[in-house]
Known about the structure:
Layout: H1 14-19, E1 22-28, H2 32-50, E2 67-73, H3 85-94, E3 98-101, H4 110-132, H5 134-153, H6 156-160
Parallel strand pairs: 1-2, 2-3
Amino acid sequence: MKERFVPFFPQLSLEDFTSADAIIVSYSVTDMASFRKAVHCLSMMRDLANKQPPSALPLGPGLRSKAVILVGNKSDLARVRTINTENGRSAASKYDVKFIETSVTIHHNVDELLVGALSQVRLKARQAAALSCKHHAKFTSRAKNLWNRLMQKCDFRFHSCDNLHRL
Length: 167
């Protein structure tokens, strides 16, 4: 797995997006500008992925084919916090990505983030492999579409963005 840091995705290319196994978009909970940039990055990635033909990605267009996690960092700085947890969860739900808050300073949720990112990569790989089988692909796709429509009507997707060990 190739590791690369791309600050604010100034010239995000299709190759950058498709070669990554996991994408972690981080912002500071004490800085509204960093949150806006993180949300802008999610928007750019979604737009870039939607420009591809549906057959180009294992699970079609969008961020669903990649393990994408929105991370609110500096959660230990409660007194100077400007972005609350609900804003982060809401952005994660809007872009259908996972969400977690961390504090690198006190090592809060850092291990959970790394283990969760690996779990997401493995889950996405398993899901792509299952969908590549012709027998399972049609049934799984129909069942998944039905399930997604039901889940969108209920508000369960909002709660599942916190669980890094589930799709």
